[in-house]
From TrEMBL:
SUPFAM superfamilies: Flavoproteins (SSF52218). InterPro entries: Flavoprotein-like_sf, FMN_Rdtase-like_dom, NAD(P)H-dep_reductase. This is NAD(P)H-dependent oxidoreductase. Coiled coil: none annotated. PANTHER family: CHROMATE REDUCTASE, NAD(P)H-DEPENDENT FMN REDUCTASE LOT6. Residues 1-130 form the NADPH-dependent FMN reductase-like domain. One of its GO terms (cellular component) is cytosol. Pfam families: FMN_red. GO terms for molecular function: FMN binding; oxidoreductase activity. It comes from the Bacteria.
């Protein structure tokens, strides 16, 4: 099974990207996680550029989404909402068939950001019939380094919860695939 993990942060030292990379590191056997953290490569969405004119970086993301059995998304909150870069990526996907039945779950690297989470949940329930708001992994990792995020996620306190989350989401994706 293959997951695509999309970070909503373009920051090199992003804790959300680090969390997704840590999950990639501890993923159970049989579950491969690819991390996408290049939202900055996508041009600003315009309906004029859909179809034959779709830009190459968008097509590359679409292919990754298509190949994935499910999407994990982890995002910071910017100005009490979801970051523009992440919304832009979702705007590119929204009128395409690759997203409409794609299983999606959220993870979150902060104890803050509830406005963004509410926003993102509303947007994701609009674009896919398989957004699972019950599956959610939240860890207070704000300002931690990538090395420390990996250490925390691999540590005895968090590892079982993170493994369980990944296994539950993989099961959900498997059920969606056979439905
Ligand atoms: C432009 C900007 C706006 C932000 N707005 C908020 C906000 O409204 N609420 C909040 O809790 N944090 C806000 N933050 C803090 C980030 O959400 C927080 O630092 C997050 O953990 C960063 O995630 P990252 O490490 O993945 O980049 C903001 C940060 C930036 C740079």
């Amino acid at each position: 099974m293959q997951l695509l993990a999309i970070s909503g942060s373009a920051r090199a030292a992003s804790t959300n990207t680090a969390l997704l990379r840590a999950l990639q590191h501890i993923a159970p056997a049989g579950l491969a996680i690819e991390v996408f953290h290049d939202l900055a490569a996508l041009p600003v969405f315009s309906p004029d550029l859909e179809g034959a004119l779709t830009p190459a970086p968008v097509l590359a993301l679409v292919q990754q989404v298509q190949a994935a059995d499910g999407l994990l998304i982890s995002s910071p909150e910017y100005v009490r909402a979801l970051p523009g870069g992440l919304k832009n990526a979702i705007d590119w996907l929204v009128s395409r068939e690759e997203i409409i039945q794609k299983p999606v779950a959220l993870v979150h690297a902060s104890h803050r950001g509830d406005d963004m989470l509410a926003d993102l949940r509303r947007v994701l329930s609009t674009v896919t019939a398989q957004f699972n708001s019950d599956l959610f992994l939240r860890l207070p990792l704000m300002k931690e380094s990538a090395a420390s995020v990996l250490q925390i996620v691999s540590g005895a306190e968090v590892y079982p919860e993170a493994q369980q989350f990944l296994q539950d989401f993989a099961t959900f994706c498997g059920c969606a695939r056979t439905a």
